[in-house]
User: Which sequence fits this backbone?
């Protein structure tokens, strides 16, 4: 159980830093255990009860971890709300979980302390909710995915069992603490004695500096973060000699980006695939994978996880055929808080979780993704998956970033529009440039038939492409842009990253 894991870790690792804050100050395992005991007693004193919810809207600072551990020690579930959200977005999430207590500042955490006291012990209960993680909301309204003690144990069993971060060591906290990559993985960070190095806000130059300063051996993050690292003017001078492996998650990454990471970081790379609802666990490529696996797949199931590819009726398709990727895993969420209908829709009757991602298993048993089920559009009777097209166009030297969206067309039904962030704003690639570049890799019906040049693609608070916002921001020309879906793909936070 999480609370007991922290107590055990405090005895084992005592003076070792569990956290190093943005100012470089260490917070030891003993410190966090003691402070969370005192805050837990304070929470109990103000009326927080077992199975209620404590909402944390404060930034990713050490006090967040203290409050999270304190809530677990009184048997309450933590719901982390990203402080970067607007007031309206934040209130909507709070309404969804109906918290008994909202903690918004580090000072509030300190004010809850009851020095020298400890909370009453909890009876073991594997079904007790521990954390609620909100889906990313890339294309729709977020939902609250609930994880209990049983699910957190399963996550620990997979990651600790596979030797991830064996022996602990410093790790860069690359996402907000409310993200799946931290929220459901804190228990196993604690068990292996890892140290989380915090940043006030993720910045590429600061991340590079911290790798050298703390001699990190592993670095994890999402595609957008690695793209920013590689484009940082400080990259070529950064001391990355300590790095042995890099883990990439949080959505599809183009083969070109993967290859550049391996070449310039001079590290082994593992690419991970999962989602919030799976607890941040799914598939991954081996660190020593051959080129074909490393560049073009998201690897094989991790530990006891099973992968099935199914058609629209829920039937498994033939090996090599594309369909919806489904996962059966002991780490999957209990369900969406307060939404039984959405929970039922998220799972097949046999327990396989619907991911909303389309893919197929190749001859080696590796999973290859081709897009999102509801992002697919149909041009002249042919299915087109934007992620496939984006993966090719992203290799164009004039393209810094790209998204492909559908537009209504009187003749073809729908056609693709490439929304491009150019590497040189004064010389953006033309539609002819993009079509010629993609012609060797893509069928003609998959090539874009219009192009829009933008300064940047909109991202969610989790640094993922916000397709809904992108579609709303585009001018309506020669047709209408179609809204996207509500399924959420996440993953690998930095730990899997590690994570």
Assistant:
């Amino acid at each position: 159980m999480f609370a007991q894991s922290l107590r055990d870790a405090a005895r084992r690792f005592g003076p070792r830093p569990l956290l190093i804050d943005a100012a470089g100050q260490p917070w030891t395992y003993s410190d966090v255990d003691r402070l969370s005991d005192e805050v837990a007693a304070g929470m109990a004193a103000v009326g927080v009860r077992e199975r209620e919810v404590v909402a944390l809207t404060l930034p990713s600072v050490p006090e967040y971890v203290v409050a999270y551990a304190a809530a677990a020690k009184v048997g309450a579930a933590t719901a982390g709300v990203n402080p970067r959200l607007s007031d309206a977005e934040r209130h909507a999430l709070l309404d969804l979980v109906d918290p008994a207590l909202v903690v918004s500042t580090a000072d509030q955490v300190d004010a809850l302390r009851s020095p020298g006291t400890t909370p009453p012990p909890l009876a073991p209960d594997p079904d007790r909710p521990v954390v609620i993680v909100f889906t990313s909301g890339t294309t729709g309204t977020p939902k609250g995915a609930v994880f209990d003690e049983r699910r957190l144990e399963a996550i620990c069993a997979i990651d600790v069992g596979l030797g991830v971060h064996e022996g602990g060591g410093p790790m860069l906290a690359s996402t907000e603490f409310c993200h799946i990559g931290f929220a459901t993985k804190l228990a196993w960070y604690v068990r292996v004695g890892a140290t989380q190095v915090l940043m006030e806000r993720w910045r590429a130059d600061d991340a590079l500096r911290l790798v050298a300063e703390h001699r990190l051996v592993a670095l994890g993050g999402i595609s957008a973060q690695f793209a920013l690292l590689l484009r940082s003017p400080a990259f070529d001078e950064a001391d990355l000699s300590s790095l042995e492996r890099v883990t990439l998650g949080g959505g599809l990454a183009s083969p070109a980006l993967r290859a550049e990471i391996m070449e310039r970081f001079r590290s082994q790379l593992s690419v991970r695939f999962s989602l919030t609802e799976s607890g941040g666990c799914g598939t991954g490529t081996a660190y020593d994978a051959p080129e074909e696996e490393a560049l073009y797949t998201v690897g094989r199931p991790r530990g006891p996880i099973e992968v099935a590819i199914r058609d629209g009726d829920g039937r498994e398709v033939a090996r090599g055929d594309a369909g919806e990727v489904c996962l059966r895993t002991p780490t999957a969420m209990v369900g969406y808080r307060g939404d039984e209908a959405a929970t039922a829709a998220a799972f097949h009757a046999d327990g396989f979780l619907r991911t909303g991602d389309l893919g197929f298993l190749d001859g080696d048993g590796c999973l290859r993704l081709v897009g999102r089920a509801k992002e697919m559009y149909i041009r002249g009777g042919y299915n087109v998956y934007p992620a496939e097209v984006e993966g090719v166009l992203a290799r164009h030297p004039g393209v810094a970033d790209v998204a492909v969206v559908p537009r209504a067309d009187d003749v073809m039904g729908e056609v693709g529009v490439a929304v491009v962030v150019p590497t040189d704003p004064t010389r953006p690639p033309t539609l002819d440039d993009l079509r010629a570049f993609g012609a060797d890799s893509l069928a003609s019906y998959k090539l874009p038939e219009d192009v829009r040049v933008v300064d940047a693609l909109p991202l969610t608070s989790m640094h993922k492409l916000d397709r809904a916002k992108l579609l709303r921001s585009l001018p309506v020309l020669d047709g209408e842009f179609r809204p996207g879906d509500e399924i959420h793909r996440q993953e690998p936070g930095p730990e899997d990253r590690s994570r």
